[in-house]
Amino acid sequence: MKIYYVYILKCCDASYYTGVTNCLERRFAEHVNGRNEICYTFTRRPVELVFFREFRYVNDAIAFEKQVKGWSRKKKEAVIIRDWEGLRPLAECHNGTHSRNKDADDMKGFGLK
């Protein structure tokens, strides 16, 4: 059975790179050695592997990679330290226009009390 990995690298400029692979050791070595000059990490070496997660199915790995790539730095750092409880509040919407964050007076204009 093939295993797929989603991984996060911390670059020398403190930015994060998220990727997916079926061979974590090989892919990490490629980042470390600068195999591809147009890769994000090429000019940000050295890199450090700070997180990885295994998946049985490639589609699950790709979906998780896309999800993580869209996350804020704080959410990525919560995952890196495996702070699953700390991740929950970071995932909540804090936008003032979100219905959960409106107070009763704001809701009256929408016919709600």
Brief descriptors of the model:
GIY-YIG endonuclease, three-stranded antiparallel beta sheet, alpha+beta, 5 helices, 113 residues, 19% strand, 3 strands
Structure description:
This protein is α+β, with helices and mostly antiparallel strands and 113 residues long. The protein has one domain (4-108): GIY-YIG endonuclease (3-Layer(aba) Sandwich). 38% of the residues lie in helices and 19% in strands. The chain has five helices and three strands; from the N terminus they run E-E-H-E-H-H-H-H. The protein has helices at 24-33, 58-69, 73-80, 84-91, 104-108; strands at 4-10, 16-21, 48-55. It has a three-stranded antiparallel beta sheet, sandwiched between helices. Strand 1 and strand 2 (16-21) form a beta hairpin. Helix 3 runs antiparallel to helix 4 (84-91). The longest helix has 12 residues, at 58-69. The termini are far apart. The relative contact order is 0.16.
